[in-house]
Specification:
768 residues; alpha+beta; seven-stranded mixed β-sheet; six-stranded mixed β-sheet; 29% helix; globular
Length: 768
Amino acid sequence: MNADDRAAQPQPGSNTFDRRRFLGFVLAAPTLVTAAQLVPAEQAEADVPSADITELVDLNDVMTLAALPTSGLITVQVNTDGTVSFALPRAEVGQGITTSTAMLIAEEMDVPLDRVRVTLADARPELVFNQLTGGSNTTVATFTPIRVAAAVARGRLLEAAAVALGAAVTELTVEAGVVTGPTGRSIGIGALAEKAAAVRTQQVTAELKPAEQFTVIGTPQRRIDALDAVTGRKKFTMDLAVPGALPTMVCRPPTINGKVGAVANAEEVRAMPGVTHVVVISSGVAVRARTFGQCIDAVRALKVSWGPGSAQGKSDETVLAELRAAEPPLGLPPLTPSVEARFTFHFRSNSALETNCAIADVRSDRAEIWSGLKAPIVAKEAIAAKLGLPLGAVTVHVTESGGSFGRKLFFDAALEAVEISEKIGKPVKLMWHRADDSRQGRTHPMATSRVRIAYAGNTVLSYKQRHTSVATDLSHGFGEIFTALAAKLPVADLGFSETFFQLSQSMPYNFGVNSRLLNETDKGFNTGSMRNVYSPDVTCARELLIDRLASKMGKDPYRIRRDFLKDDRAIAVLEKVAEAGRWGRAMPAGTAQGIALHTEYHSASAVLVEIDCRPGTVGRPIRDGVAGPRVTKVVLAVDAGLTVNPRGLEAQMMGCAMDGIALALTSSLHLRDGYFLEASWDNYFYTRQWNTPPELDVIIMPDTTGKPGGAGELGVAASMAAVACAYGRATGTMPTTFPINHGTLSFEPKPVVPPVPQSPTDGLDHAF
């Protein structure tokens, strides 16, 4: 085998061939329809987890491997009007994947970006694991299949154009969706759509564009849905006009997962203006009415007795005690010097901008559902089982959604809507109230993390981390992937959560013998894989202890990271933020810089922040809120391999930075007597304007790998860790409880009965 042949072989952790020539299909159809034919690359196998399993295979590799066998079922269609259609089997929840997908097609087909129509595919069980959105995997997994299908279409169009123009294929050029021959005659792809179609499915070859010829990929593009979004024309679930589907809400229990005992005034509420139905369901009492305002009035009027919930009597203190009791031991103290600490991370809300919602129309022999779902196949299967219907009798439409951060992996709203529609025999448009999202929705689990680093002189001998968490619910599709691929994964017989943990946690530093273990306890909470899942907590704990190690060794926090990093890409992003952020510059007392690094999804990010912890800043008066320290500057550098849309990547990193600031400083739920005190975004403190940094600089590194890495969640962990490290340096005390302001309850908790709080009436009297 010569050097060129060796270079063309699949590399460890890759998900397809490095050659540019691929097989594809032209499918039998009235107009041109094409698909890719891909086979999984060989994956390395091992019997037990290694010290850093992610160097062998990571979560993104596993998701890509799971999706690859059905990639040929995803098709590109050329229409007679000159547009190109593609039904994306992923969920657009604001991350911009419809735009990046359109860019891939536009690139390979040489058509204008605004002629590519990307829609979201309905639930298609035949796609198996190819219709699961999460783990920053969409662009990674679809990058090659979409391009191959588009390249097949381009080749087929050129063949048809050669006949129409009387020229050889090699004499033709394609620009802006128009094929031009050597004599100047031209023909649009719309006119070729039927000519290029196949009467029977044919296997063909296609060659992808080399990167040096890219004119779309890698260029900043505005979102293809931007105009519709800002003009109100974009359709979300609650915007859909499904015949007969009336507004519906649920009166929910005062404690987490409480059950209905009895309803004392159902008939009275049923007689209220606009109310059409009042019915008991498994999660509460559902009300259907002419308007959502009437639903809210009815929910507030209901008198319900409730049974105990799954977290009855629990509080922050009791759950923390459970976690500490369940912590795996770190082992005997080392014989050499060491640094060690325990960190606590409180519950955090997984509430997206768009509240949980779904539309359902259930009949005796069929059901139709509309919702923003990231695991629609699992939802379809669960709904069919719940209704006792054949899978083919259930149609699940995936709608665009206003945010997710992992929340829309769960389809509880769709299941509720189905249950209500079946019971009343009418279509329903179900919407959760914001208080429902906060108190009964999905949360990021409360956790502790114990870390120990042993060292001698300037050498780190070992790194141990024991992360203990309230159980994370992975029943939305990730677990099924792990089960299906168990024999191919180097994780022995680990459980779902431990597998997820091991496949997502990297160790970028040369820290000798290192081990990271997860232990989960307490399944009484509604949890989910919130954005970046375990990584923000795990990385924050690690990076804080690295700062303490630097102090013990007498080293600069930036320099110690730089000296111990293993990977050139990680070194490059760290050096870039240190340079751009002027690491080490003189700053006033009470202010400081912090720096941190995170690698995941075959990508790397580093963040430098500056924070102001001076009394005048911390004590700023905020009505019913906590001001606390303020991050005044963020510099974030990201290497995502090959960047498809730099503008989209920049937006994702800005969101990651805001998430990280919130997780470090203000964003948490307070648990008391089996329920969360927060009941709206008035008193759940995501990063607000008063804590948004005046300076924010996102640096996108030059392409390094020739293929995309994951990016949607990448910057959260390093951002949170950098803020925490900056706080420790500014105050002289390393923080160990997060968010830092969790101990201050700045608002008067709203009542739990009725579950929907009274709407504020003083909105004109103040502004944030």
